[in-house]
Amino acid sequence: MKRIPSILFLLALLLNACVPAATPVATEVSIIATEAPATEAPTEVPAAPANPNLILATTTSTQDSGLLDVLIPLFEEKTGYTIQTVAVGTGQALKMGEEGNADVLLVHAPKSEEAFMEAGFGKDRAPVMHNDFIIVGPESDPAQIKGTVSAIDVLKRIYNSGSLFISRGDDSGTHKKELEIWGKAELDPKGQAWYLESGQGMGATLTIASEKEAYTITDRGTFLAQQENLDLLIILEGDPPLLNPYHVITVNPQKWPNINYDGALAFYKFITTPEIQKVISEFGMLEYGQPLFFPDAP
Fold first, then answer.
1. Which helix (H) or strand (E) holds 59?
2. 272-291 pLDDT, tens per residue?
3. Residue 63: half-sphere exposure toward Cβ, Cα within 13 Å
């Protein structure tokens, strides 16, 4: 009878040996979970706009300088909109807005822009950036302009010398500025044999002036962007009246209910953000050693 407890004791030991330990397994699982690589957050994809198609009417200077080649892909990636760019003179861009053929404008003729807003064609308007106009011409400088500090005096010398001058003649912001200076000089070059109108954008007008060894007025950005292909020099710069400000304007949906106002407002906000203003301030630095535009958004 005394052997029974020993047998029961041995059986108890055998049974305990068959039961797996719980604590080490739990520890191993917790180690595996801790060492598992973190899953990368998915890339944020912008929600698809209800109407993704947006028409931007802008100047040839923003196109020819290469700025839009930088800004538009950024906008499309961030917002999901697709922009159709129409690069024309500012007068034509404003006309497109008046007729409801554009959703948003990027232009540079303040007086015409103000008239556009006062007539109710624009809803929102904000400063974006500026550069300046310069007068360029051949190295020979036939009108002996070098050293002159006033754009008015420059045009007077061109007029009196009969030196060849190429005007855009396209109602653009640049053309409006040129006509403004001729008006202040109290001179009318129309009809003069030396005064030619290209009827084209800034890039093409610069090419014609270079080929004909003529003077012209241009925005600095387009000139710097194309300088390598031109036989032209800066003849006059720095005259305060030659400041060249750009504004973004949304077309008024109360005038044209079918325009894409949501898209226009998205572009308006995008181009005035600190992030994009920084992009504008740096554009041209790497290639030309100076910015082509200076940011103006508050």
1. strand 53-59
2. 999 999 999 999 999 989 99
3. 17
Q: Are residues 177 and 232 in the same domain?
A: yes
Residue numbers of the domain that contains 109: 53-131+245-295
Task: Report the candidate in 152, 179, 296 with the shortest Cα–Cα distance to residue 236.
Answer: 152
- Nearest-CA neighbor of 127 among 271, 257, 15? 271
CB 136 within 8 A of CB 256: no
CATH of the domain at 170: 3.40.190.10
pLDDT tens for each residue of 120-171: 999 999 999 999 999 999 999 999 999 999 999 999 999 999 999 999 999 9
Question: Which residues are CB-neighbours of 84 under 8 A, at least 6 positions away?
Answer: 53, 54, 55, 56
280 φ, ψ to 5°?
-65, -45
Angle, alpha carbons 282-285-291 (nearest 5°): 65
Tokens of 219: 């925005």
Residue type, 146: K
pLDDT tens per residue, range 81-94: 999 999 999 999 99
Amino acid identity for residue 265 in this structure: L
> Cβ of 77: how many Cβ atoms within 10 Å?
11
Looking at 19-163, list the stretches that DSSP marks H as alpha helix, in order from N- to C-terminal side.
Answer: 22-35, 60-64, 67-79, 90-98, 110-118, 151-161
Quickly tell me which residue has 């400063």 as its tokens. Answer: 127
